[in-house]
Amino acid sequence: MYPPIEQYETGKLKVSDIHTLYYEISGNEKGTPVVFLHGGPGSGTDPKDRLFFNPEKYKIILFDQRGAGKSTPTASLEENTTWDLVKDIERLREHLKIAKWNVFGGSWGSTLSLAYAQSHPERVKTLVLRGIFTLRKSELRFFYQEGTSHLFPGAWEEYIAPIPEPERHDMITAYHAQLNSADEETRIKAAKAWSKWEMATSKLYVDPAQLAQADNDRWANAFARIENHYFVNDGFMRDGQLLEKQEIDKIRHIPTIVVQGRYDVVCPARTAYDLKKVWPEITLHIVPDAGHSAREPGTAKLLVDATDKMADL
């Protein structure tokens, strides 16, 4: 990854009566524009997200999606859907007076990248995607109900602990009730448990720093509530919509590189494989020694290689 850099511009963009987005720009003011779409939904951006891009070649645009990071109001679920976020990306592009840009997204960011590109293919020059996630029911079941639970039984026990045993047949719905409880203590306890489950399973080798992030009340509350809100509503789209032929046909011409961890148990490789089947024109890299995180060495290297290649297209 590239060395740390500072942003040269920050701003706030009001996108509705409720929501105001935080955005920042770094790199080369006259470089190739690239927009970074963060994961979660609800995780927000991090200064390290700038480091996937050559700062001499790219105008690097990061923003926090509705309710996440420095965007306000924090953890808000009102007017917060996939299609609201797609409209926000377009508003930001228009606000910054950018004709077309490269799009980079991993995990939920890959979902949003595909949804945005399929909605506005004429505005997307290239796609770099990681940890493909299309919000199908089968994907959600694997991570939140049965699948990853067999690989991380200790972390799974902690994840299910806040949920009464009779409700554990549908963990997403059970968590929804607690994350929206009128009791703040119940909400925060559930948010931390939900967040810790993902932090504990995101890397091939468990990262204590990631686990510690789940103990941050504000971050965990936004991350868990917004994620769960999207998942309990099936991403506000048809099951498998992003993989449908008529949707892929809209973006088939866009140069696309996908980087996928072989041992990703949050967004398993099956989804990247299914994407490649319906869209054989993409370049798919399977990283043999990586899990879900973008910052594992093999994945990070291939992502940087991809952005280097796309910078000159």
Automatic annotation (TrEMBL):
One of its GO terms (molecular function) is aminopeptidase activity. It is found in: Cytoplasm. It holds the Pfam family Abhydrolase_1. Residues 33-294 form the AB hydrolase-1 domain. The keyword Protease applies. GO terms for cellular component: cytoplasm. Its EC number is 3.4.11.5. Signal peptide: none annotated. It is an enzyme of class 3 (hydrolase). Keywords: Aminopeptidase, Cytoplasm, Hydrolase, Protease. InterPro entries: AB_hydrolase_1, AB_hydrolase_fold, Peptidase_S33, Pro_iminopeptidase. It catalyses: Release of N-terminal proline from a peptide. The active site is at S107, D264, H292. The keyword Hydrolase applies. GO terms for biological process: proteolysis. Belongs to the peptidase S33 family. This is Proline iminopeptidase. The lineage of its organism: Eukaryota, Fungi, Dikarya, Basidiomycota, Agaricomycotina.
